[in-house]
């Protein structure tokens, strides 16, 4: 299917407030306790670190004359990069699956972006039902690669930032993208990868949703593209009080939260605010160029190394309520695809290896040297990160509010919403209609690959690939509307 090109569109002003939908009616944003917000006043995307507001105007600079190819442009990593790259004058050729959602609208109306709308994969009715774990069983029957769109993506581009996801056969798409970039003469190819732990130690299990990326990384090295590989830490944005596995902060009757996960409570983990910090860091890698970062160098991108207990203390300071960590199994309270269930089971197995000794827990990035490089290397790329406490204080309440939750509102402003999770016995404090489950892909804030960024759009019922099967668990809210949470 040929890509649909969209360009020269006027930039639509960002809305000045988030509206809350209750029983199908929209209301002005209600007052909440977290008034100091990165999304307040000028724009819902404006940060207090915005240099256009808080720094004096600089002398005019010539615009960069290079074009950057980007896929899955509505994902957190890609959207963050597009914002900063186009702000300084780069042109972007951006692949989008569709134009639905706030972020897709932001990208498609950016005058420095040419949008190629379409899927990176092709699909036919599968001949038979097969396992969704393509790392063990090969490609899904009936799923191919949209070579026409991929070739068009790199037309006239000199640089590329590529973050493959679960839509289609990720490994085949990753190989096709690398081949097309090589043919187009891309000068610097940045690939968002993740480790295969089994490749570092045969006693460690592979996380199946990360193994596909690692195989693509190996292929990029094999064909000798001038490439850099970026490994992202756990997203601050993963946390939610909705009942999603692994990063659910479950609200208690007293208003406190419990985060339960299999990580050792005293073992350091890497953290990253994807929306705020991926873009500036990737831009600096491009500015430094392949002479510094080429040759297959790997960069662990994370700005804080926090144990789960430390993360809870930091988060607690931000939201001004107790947050307690419990080491325990991953609780699955909603329907998830079988492929993601395999990922969670492998995760539990991997982080059970250290048992009670935090020093024996496998490093998050597989290579201990990469873990130890955080946050030093990241801070060399970008010195203005948004930490977990700042995220919890300024952004988390708004993301929760946009998804129908009411815990952050003043007592008199909660209206008919569930108050502090006490009503209906659900412990989460969310209004009706904001959590949707069904067959197909599971979507969450994606955290360095721990979330299911590589699940394949296959129905669990009959093996047939269909557009409706992409609607597993989807964050439904006005912040991103119906936008799927890509990596």
From TrEMBL:
Q: Name one GO cellular component term.
A: nucleus
Q: Which interval of the chain is the signal sequence?
A: none
Which segments show compositional bias classed as Basic and acidic residues? 478-487
From the UniProt entry, list the residue stretches annotated as the region Disordered: 15-49, 416-487
| InterPro entries cross-referenced by the UniProt entry | NAD(P)-bd_dom_sf, NmrA-like, NmrA-like_oxidored
Q: Where is the composition biased (Gly residues)?
A: 416-430
Q: Which Pfam families match?
A: NmrA
Domain NmrA-like: where? 65-392
Biased segments, Acidic residues type: 458-472
Q: Which UniProt keywords apply?
A: NADP
**Protein family membership:** Belongs to the NmrA-type oxidoreductase family.
Instruction: Spell out the protein name for this chain.
Output: NmrA-like family-domain-containing protein
Q: Upper lineage ranks?
A: Eukaryota, Fungi, Dikarya, Ascomycota, Pezizomycotina
């Amino acid at each position: 299917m040929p890509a649909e090109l969209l360009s020269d569109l006027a930039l639509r002003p960002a809305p000045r407030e988030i509206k809350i939908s209750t029983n199908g009616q929209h209301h002005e944003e209600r007052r909440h306790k977290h008034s100091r917000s990165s999304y307040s006043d000028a724009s819902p995307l404006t940060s207090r670190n915005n240099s256009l507001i808080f720094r004096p105007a600089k002398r005019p600079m010539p615009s960069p004359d290079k074009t950057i190819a980007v896929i899955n442009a509505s994902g957190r990593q890609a959207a963050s990069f597009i914002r900063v790259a186009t702000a300084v004058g780069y042109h972007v050729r951006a692949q989008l699956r569709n134009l639905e959602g706030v972020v897709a609208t932001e990208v498609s109306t950016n005058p420095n972006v040419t949008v190629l709308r379409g899927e990176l994969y092709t699909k036919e009715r599968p001949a038979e039902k097969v396992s969704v774990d393509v790392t063990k069983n090969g490609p899904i029957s009936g799923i191919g690669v949209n070579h026409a769109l991929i070739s068009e993506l790199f037309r006239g581009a000199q640089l590329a930032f590529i973050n493959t996801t679960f839509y289609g056969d990720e490994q085949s798409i990753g190989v096709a993208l690398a081949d097309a970039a090589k043919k187009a003469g891309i000068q610097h190819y940045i690939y968002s990868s993740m480790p295969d732990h089994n490749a570092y130690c045969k006693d460690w299990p592979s996380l199946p949703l990360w193994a596909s990326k690692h195989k693509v990384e190996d292929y990029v090295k094999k064909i000798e593209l001038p490439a850099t590989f970026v490994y992202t830490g756990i997203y601050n944005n993963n946390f939610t009080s909705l009942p999603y596995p692994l990063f659910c902060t479950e609200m208690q009757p007293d208003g406190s939260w419990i985060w339960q996960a299999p990580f050792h409570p005293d073992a350091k983990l890497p953290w990253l605010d994807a929306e705020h910090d991926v873009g500036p860091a990737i831009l600096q890698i491009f500015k430094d160029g392949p002479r510094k970062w080429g040759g297959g160098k790997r960069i662990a991108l994370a700005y804080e190394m926090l144990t789960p207990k430390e993360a809870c203390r930091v988060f607690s300071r931000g939201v001004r309520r107790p947050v307690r960590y419990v080491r325990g199994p991953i609780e699955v309270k909603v329907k998830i695809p079988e492929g993601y269930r395999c990922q969670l089971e492998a995760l539990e197995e991997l982080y059970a290896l250290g048992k009670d000794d935090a020093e024996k827990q496998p490093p998050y990035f597989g290579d201990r040297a990469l873990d130890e490089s955080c946050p030093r290397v990241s801070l060399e790329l970008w010195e203005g990160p948004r930490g977990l406490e700042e995220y919890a204080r300024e952004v988390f309440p708004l993301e929760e509010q946009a998804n129908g939750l009411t815990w952050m509102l003043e007592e008199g402003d909660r209206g008919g919403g569930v108050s502090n999770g006490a009503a209906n016995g659900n412990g989460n404090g969310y209004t009706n209609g904001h959590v949707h489950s069904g067959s197909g892909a599971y979507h969450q804030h994606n955290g360095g690959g721990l979330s299911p960024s590589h699940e394949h759009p296959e129905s669990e019922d009959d093996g047939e690939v269909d557009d409706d099967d992409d609607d597993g668990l989807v964050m439904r809210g006005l912040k991103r509307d119906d936008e799927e949470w890509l990596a």
